[in-house]
């Protein structure tokens, strides 16, 4: 015969289990979420979470896009500011290309010189709201399309990649 004492959870065990479950979400939430990985030409990788992105200078771009209605306000660090400390100065990157990969593994390549020629940003916010995956976030490469006629070409629109997770210097 099995004793009932072993099959019944004590109030103390129940309370401890409940406390552990209550603390679990905050422990998980405390872990930084990787937003972007930069892989330099030398093979080293640099990881950016929200805090690392927030430490960079942020810039605003107000522009129309091929995917939205009316002018939009985008905020985030310049692509050049993400690249420079790890991938090298503009002169070292002038002839290189960047491979950008999205969360769904969509890939594009752009000239690395775009980072300094056009000053695109890695938009983390749109119209004052942090960008979510469903809104082309968390990072969207945004060019100041309205500021330069060269950027109003549909071929340049193909360089706008959203949900960026990886940038590789080739």
Give a concise summary.
This protein is an alpha+beta fold and 170 residues long. The chain has helices at 4-7, 11-29, 50-55, 79-87, 90-93, 114-117, 154-157; strands at residues 34-39, 45-49, 58-63, 72-77, 97-102, 107-111, 121-123, 125-126, 129-130, 140-142, 164-169.
Could you give me the name of the CATH homologous superfamily? Oxidoreductase, molybdopterin-binding domain
Q: Low-confidence stretches at least 5 residues in length (pLDDT < 50)?
A: none
CATH class: Alpha Beta
Count every beta strand, where a strand is a DSSP E run of 2 or more residues: 11
The profile of the biggest β sheet is: 5 strands, mixed
**Sequence of secondary-structure elements:** HHEEHEEHHEEHEEEEHE
Number of domain modules: 1
The residue fraction in helices comes out at: 25-40%
Q: Using the coordinates shown, work out and report the CATH topology.
A: Sulfite Oxidase, Chain A, domain 2
| Spatial gap, N to C terminus | 71 Å
Q: What general outline do the C-alpha atoms trace?
A: globular
Gross CATH architecture? Alpha-Beta Complex
Give the count of helical stretches.
Answer: 7
Strand order of the largest sheet: 2-1-11-5-6
Beta-strand content = 25-35%
């Amino acid at each position: 015969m099995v004793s009932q004492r072993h099959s019944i959870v004590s109030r103390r065990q129940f309370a401890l289990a409940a406390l552990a479950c209550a603390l679990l979400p905050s422990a998980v939430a405390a872990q930084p979420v990787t937003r972007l990985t930069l892989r330099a030409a030398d093979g080293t990788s640099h990881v950016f979470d929200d805090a690392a992105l927030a430490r960079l200078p942020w810039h605003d771009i107000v522009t129309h896009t091929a995917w939205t209605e009316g002018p939009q306000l985008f905020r985030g660090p310049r692509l050049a500011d993400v690249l420079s400390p790890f991938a090298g100065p503009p002169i070292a990157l002038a002839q290189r290309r960047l491979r950008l990969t999205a969360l769904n593994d969509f890939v594009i390549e752009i000239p690395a010189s775009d980072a300094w020629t056009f000053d695109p940003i890695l938009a983390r916010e749109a119209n004052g709201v942090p960008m979510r995956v469903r809104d082309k976030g968390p990072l969207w490469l945004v060019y100041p399309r309205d500021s330069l006629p060269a950027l109003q070409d549909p071929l340049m629109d193909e360089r706008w990649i959203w949900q960026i997770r990886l940038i590789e210097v080739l």
